[in-house]
């Protein structure tokens, strides 16, 4: 589970920085997404 969370944060941050943005991380939402989706893919 922790590896999945790290992947979500890493990929989301990279995607946001690519368009000049930043991530406002909500731990509850991160936990929910990590538990609901086996292979999450961030999108803009």
UniProtKB/TrEMBL annotation:
<keyword id="KW-0436">Ligase</keyword>
<protein>
    <submittedName>
        <fullName>Glycine--tRNA ligase protein</fullName>
        <ecNumber>6.1.1.14</ecNumber>
    </submittedName>
</protein>
